[in-house]
């Protein structure tokens, strides 16, 4: 199973250096307009020092049960098949108008922050995405798994957690993989599900990241996917903004709250606010919300992920 290959790679760190030169490739989905280029920076701006997720003191367990990869007899994907190196995907014009990719070279200098370090990776940005003006951009990141795990402890930890989930080991919200290049942490997560794509498998959930007790809101909320290709060579992270009908549109404490929404207690109660209780209530509410009530629907984004193929 590919999970075993990832495990061995992370244990022994056989080094294959990938040198990438900066270049852009783009493809449009018909019909579409000519959208303005989207910004490529997905880092959360903060005013305090970031907290790095520490790596586990031990490596991935020496033996892991085989993973049963979900399969279907026949898959039907929405939209046109489009490709930009190294990704092929079915992109529905209802979701986005096209995409372009950017190759980033290795960055590992002493002056680089840990969340900026990369062995060299590809960033694919969706153009004319259904939602605009959100905190995050709709993007897919493809990293060489072995090199990234060796270079960045937070990447190793996320791959370790992902590997355990795919192996069927028990986990809770504290055991979900985190995005290694975010200088922030998950505030809450819900609707967790393993999901396979054309040549790999991973886990998806909806979440928000912050370095403060953020409210659940439609500006910060996004669909997160993390996975491995079946050969264990590539680690994939996808970020897609998404909105829920029961959330306020922004994190502004005065933003109108839809009927049935959970009031944000932090500014009203100060440091005594029951934020764990708030996040528990929000998670329960969002988990009980129909997947079709989100925009885009969770099904649309699941189909997008399932249609992916990563090829070198």
Topology (SSEs and partners):
Layout: H1 2-12, E1 24-28, E2 80-84, E3 87-91, E4 98-104, E5 121-127, E6 139-144, H2 145-151, H3 153-166, E7 185-197, E8 200-210, E9 222-229, E10 234-241, H4 266-269, H5 275-287, H6 298-306, E11 309-310
Helix pairs in contact: 1-3, 2-3
Can you offer a commentary on this structure?
The chain has six helices and eleven strands. By secondary structure, it is α+β, with helices and mostly antiparallel strands. The protein has one domain (2-26, 44-247, 288-310). The strands form two sheets. The protein has an eight-stranded antiparallel β-sheet with strand order 1-4-5-6-10-9-8-7, sandwiched between helices. Strands 2-3-11 form a three-stranded antiparallel β-sheet. Strand 7 (185-197) and strand 8 form a beta hairpin. Helix 2 packs across helix 3. The chain starts with a helix and ends with a strand. The model is unreliable at 6-25 and 29-73 (pLDDT under 50).
Q: Give the overall pLDDT as a whole number.
A: 81
Largest sheet report: 8 strands, antiparallel
Strand content: 15-25%
Count of DSSP strands: 11
Distance between the termini: 19 Å
Helical run tally:
6
